[in-house]
Structure formats: structure tokens, C-alpha cells
């Protein structure tokens, strides 16, 4: 089966590469000429471990190619996968323009080809994160643009819209795609739920060749759309829960990391997404949480819990500043060395990264800020230019600093050379905004350690 994937961002490109790796013929479509040029040379246009190698391998095997020609790809493909961005739009709702453009092109270009579409069923699989009801809108847009392109009054070609939300994380995108915890397909017609598969289910299992251990969930379009938002909102809720409890632990002389660790052994709770600190960032959790609140409001609901989750997260940068201010008394004139800029490790992504508001506030308060990140330096330079000093290594920014502040838990920051740090800092203070160090270990080396929600020594 020939597949065209629209959008070569984290989700689209990982999907294209993953499906090619599974043996499909895949064409990646994007409008960005520079991105396409890099991809055709076998280079991943963004930082994502492991992707480069598989792009090259599948280009060489001729299973993967890239183009900007939407029309040709729609005519030639049996399956269209829509993985374009749905950024924060008006009133925090998801901006669906790119998704609906792909849908419109699908209807229009399908009409211009041979008559093959009359015989063969095509699939329009949406992977972009969209609010409930969008898949139905996608069908309407496809039908409308088909009819207006053919000047017909009826005949609607044989196609199905499928909602297939993606749960991959940046930094581990390929592994998440190839070995998912679950795969969700929202279908227009309810699944038979019997052991015999429908025609569409058979087509899907030929495209997404997962082994039998992967749970495949067939559900309605609307359920599938909500499952995506609900999953991200729930992860965000866990993090804000841990952060709110962290503040309580700190006030009453307890340690959130020990509390969360013990809680996590309860199989009903689990350990994931309970790490407290600077809060959640990235292109998804904050955006999807905002969108769910906004779409809830549109449906006449006040989603109070989710608003609290957002509020707690919005306050995390202030919390970090409060810790610094309490310790340093005044920030003006102090040199702060910052380790970690990206919103999480293993990515250079700065979208909604907590480092941005924290460093802005430090600068506003008169601090001299020196930064280092293993991957995000170039992107950070575009944002802050000469307002901060950029180091060449983690240790290069420490000389005479009044504090080392950790904002991203990159693995390499977890096992630093404490003797070197101690020698370089003017004031032996480490503020661990991700709770990634062991207080006992840090204190053993003669530092004052301040985590978030951890007992003060
Ligand atoms: C998130 C979801 O985890 C994916 O399942 C989803 O597919 C993706 O959004 C998406 O919608 O595309 P991602 O944005 O890559 O993935 O980020 P996460 O790994 O979930 O981390 C989000 C933020 O939460 C980071 O800033 C991280 O540092 C923070 N975090 C995470 C915590 O503060 N504490 C934790 O315990 C875990």
C-alpha cells in the first residue's frame, strides 16, 4: 500500500519513517523547502535520537521519499496520513487550518485523477491532535471540495476517515512509535468487536504492522479524539499534583521525591509523571491542556480541575525564583549559571520550556545569566541573543557563579564532577529545579543543596 504522510514534524516524520521501516512505501509531504532538502539528503531537520539513521536506511531501500507535491501524492496513494501542526489558535482553541487544508486538498485532488477512486477505497487517517468533532468536519470538507471540483451534485467517492491519535514523546519518538503501549483507531462505523475484522480493520493491520502483544483499540471517532487530549491532560494533572505536594512537603519538612517514590509502588498509582520541579513544558502538554479547557468552555463546561492544573504549572517559574531569592537575598548583580534549557532532556525543543520565563525574570531582576545545554544552545541564542552568555561546556559557565541552577534533567547533569564545580563557583550553592541530584551526595561535597519540595538541610 502506498502511503502519503502530510507534515514532516516530530509526529509526521516519525510516522513516515516508522511505517517505511515496517515495509510500506511512504512519501513524506511538507511545504518547507529547506526541510525537504535536508530530508532528501538523509538528514533529520530536528534533534531526535535515532531518526537520521533510519531516514537514510529507508531512502536507500527506496521505501521512503519526500516531496511537496500534494496533488501527485493524493492521486498515487491509497492512504493519506495527516500529521500537520494544530497550534494554539484563537481563545486557546486548536488552530485547525492546516488539517482542513489537507482534507480540502484530498477531496479536490481525488476528483482530478483517474477513476480509480471509484473502485478502491482510500483512507484518510488523522494523527494531528484535534478537538472532538473534527473528524466529522474533515469528512464534510473532503466531500464539499470533491463535489465543487467535479461540479457534481452527488456521488461521493469511497473513502473513510480514521482518527489515529499519536502518543509518542520527543526524545524517544521512534521507540514509542515502533513499540507503542496502545494504538487507538477511531472509526466512522463502529467496530464489530467480534473476532472477524472489518475491511478497514484489515487494511489498518496491513499498514501498521504491530505484533499481537500491542493492544489495538477500535472505538468511535469522537472517543479517539478525546483519548488524546485526556491522556495529555492526565499526565499534566499528575505533574501538577506532584508540584503542589512538593510545595506542601517543603513547608512541613518532608521530601516529595521520597513521598512520590513510595506512592509509585502502588500499582494503582505508578511512578511515572510524579517528578516535581520546574513544571511541564513542550509543544503538547501545555497546548493540549489549554485547548481542552477552551473546548470545554465552548461546550458550556467549566473544567475546574484542569484549570487548577494549568494554574499550578504557570506558577512553577515563580517558585524557582522564590527559592533563589530566599537564598541569595537579592538577585541583582548575581551571576547565575544555568544547566539545561530544553523543555526536557534529549531534545533541543524550547517550546513552552520553563527555562524561558525563569531566565527572563532573572535578567529582569538584574542577574548575569550564563547558560549551557547539550542540544538547545542555537535555538536559545535565537531567542536571547546577547542577553545571556553561552558556554561551551557545562563547566565552562561556572567560574565565580553565585549559584548553579539546573532546569533540565539531562542525564549528564546527574553525575557531575562535584570537585570541579566546587572549585569554580564563588558560592557553593546548587538549586536543583528538576530534583535530579541526590541531596546527600551534593551536601557530602560541601555544597548547599536546594531542591524543589525537599527537606532543607
Ligand atoms: C507528550 C506526551 O507524553 C506524549 O504521549 C504525547 O504524544 C505528546 O506529548 C504529544 O502530544 O505529541 P512530550 O511533549 O514529548 O510528550 O513530553 P513529555 O515527555 O510528556 O514531558 C512533558 C513535560 O513534562 C516536560 O517538560 C517534562 O520535563 C515534564 N515532566 C514530565 C515533569 O515535570 N515531571 C514528570 O514527572 C514528567
Please give a quick description of this structure.
Strand 7, helix 9 and strand 8 form a beta-alpha-beta unit.
How would you describe the overall organization of this protein?
The protein has 457 residues and is an alpha/beta fold. The protein has two domains: 218 residues, Rossmann fold (3-Layer(aba) Sandwich); 143 residues, Rossmann fold (3-Layer(aba) Sandwich). It has 18 helices and 14 strands. The strands form three sheets. The protein has a six-stranded parallel sheet, with helices on both faces. A six-stranded parallel sheet has the order 11-10-9-12-13-14. A two-stranded parallel ribbon has the order 7-8. The longest helix is centred in the middle third of the chain and has 32 residues. The chain is elongated. Uridine-5'-diphosphate-glucuronic acid binds next to α10.
Query: How do the strands of the widest beta sheet line up side by side?
Result: 3-2-1-4-5-6
Overall tally of structural domains? 2
Q: How much helix, percentage-wise, in residues?
A: 40-55%
Global shape: elongated
How would you sum up the major sheet? 6 strands, parallel
Give me the number of helical elements: 18
- Determine the N-to-C terminus distance: 62 Å
Assign the CATH superfamily of the largest domain.
NAD(P)-binding Rossmann-like Domain
Averaging pLDDT over every residue, what do you get? 95
**For the CA atoms, what is the radius of gyration?**
25 Å
For the secondary structure, the number of strands is 14
Small molecules in complex: uridine-5'-diphosphate-glucuronic acid
Broad CATH class of the largest domain:
Alpha Beta
Percent strand equals: 5-15%
The CATH topology of the largest domain is what?
Answer: Rossmann fold
Which structural class matches the secondary elements? alpha/beta
Give the name of the CATH architecture of the largest domain. 3-Layer(aba) Sandwich
Q: List segments where confidence is low: pLDDT < 50 over at least 5 consecutive residues.
A: none
Amino acid at each position: 500500500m502506498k502511503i502519503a504522510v502530510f507534515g514532516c514534524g516530530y509526529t509526521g516524520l516519525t510516522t513516515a519513517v516508522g511505517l517505511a521501516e515496517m515495509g510500506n512505501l511512504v512519501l513524506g509531504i511538507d511545504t518547507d523547502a529547506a526541510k525537504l532538502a535536508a530530508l532528501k539528503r538523509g538528514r533529520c531537520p530536528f534533534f531526535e535520537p535515532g531518526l537520521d539513521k533510519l531516514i537514510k536506511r529507508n531512502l536507500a531501500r527506496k521505501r521512503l521519499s519526500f516531496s511537496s507535491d500534494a496533488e501527485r501524492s493524493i492521486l498515487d496513494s491509497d492512504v493519506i496520513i495527516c500529521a500537520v501542526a494544530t497550534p494554539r489558535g484563537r481563545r486557546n482553541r486548536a488552530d485547525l487550518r492546516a488539517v482542513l487544508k489537507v482534507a480540502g486538498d484530498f477531496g479536490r485532488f481525488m476528483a482530478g485523477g483517474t477513476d480509480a477512486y471509484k473502485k478502491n477505497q482510500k483512507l484518510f487517517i488523522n494523527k494531528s491532535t484535534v478537538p472532538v468533532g473534527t473528524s466529522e468536519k474533515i469528512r464534510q470538507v473532503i466531500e464539499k471540495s470533491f463535489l465543487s471540483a467535479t461540479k457534481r451534485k452527488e456521488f461521493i467517492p469511497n473513502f473513510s476517515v480514521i482518527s489515529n491519535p499519536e502518543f509518542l514523546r520527543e526524545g524517544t519518538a521512534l521507540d514509542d512509535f515502533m513499540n507503542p503501549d496502545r494504538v487507538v483507531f477511531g472509526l466512522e462505523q463502529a467496530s464489530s468487536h467480534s473476532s472477524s475484522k472489518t475491511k478497514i480493520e484489515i487494511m489498518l493491520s496491513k499498514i501498521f504492522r504491530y505484533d499481537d502483544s500491542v493492544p489495538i483499540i477500535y472505538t468511535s471517532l469522537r472517543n479517539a479524539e478525546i483519548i488524546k487530549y485526556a491522556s495529555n491532560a492526565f499526565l499534566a494533572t499528575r505533574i501538577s499534583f506532584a508540584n503542589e505536594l512538593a510545595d506542601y512537603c517543603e513547608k512541613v519538612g518532608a521530601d516529595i521525591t521520597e513521598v512520590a517514590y513510595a506512592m509509585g509502588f502502588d500499582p494503582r498509582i505508578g511512578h511515572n509523571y510524579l517528578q516535581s520541579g520546574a513544571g511541564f513544558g513542550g509543544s503538547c502538554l501545555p497546548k493540549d491542556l489549554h485547548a481542552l479547557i477552551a473546548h470545554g468552555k465552548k461546550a458550556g463546561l467549566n473544567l475546574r480541575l484542569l484549570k487548577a492544573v494549568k494554574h499550578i504549572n504557570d506558577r512553577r517559574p515563580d517558585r524557582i525564583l522564590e527559592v533563589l531569592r530566599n537564598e541569595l537575598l537579592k538577585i541583582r548583580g548575581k551571576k547565575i549559571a544555568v544547566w539545561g534549557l530544553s523543555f526536557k532532556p534529549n531534545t533541543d525543543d524550547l517550546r513552552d520550556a520553563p527555562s524561558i520565563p525563569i531566565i527572563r525574570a532573572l535578567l529582569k531582576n538584574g542577574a548575569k545569566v550564563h547558560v549551557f545545554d547539550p542540544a538547545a544552545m542555537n535555538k536559545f541564542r535565537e531567542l536571547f541573543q546577547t542577553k545571556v552568555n553561552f558556554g561551551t561546556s557545562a563547566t565552562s559557565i561556572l567560574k565565580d557563579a553565585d549559584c548553579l541552577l539546573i532546569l533540565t534533567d539531562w542525564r549528564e547533569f546527574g553525575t557531575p564532577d562535584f570537585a570541579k564545580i566546587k572549585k569554580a563557583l564563588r558560592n557553593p550553592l546548587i538549586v536543583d529545579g528538576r530534583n535530579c541530584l541526590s541531596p546527600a551526595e551534593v551536601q557530602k561535597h560541601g555544597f548547599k543543596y536546594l531542591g524543589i519540595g525537599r527537606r532543607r538541610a
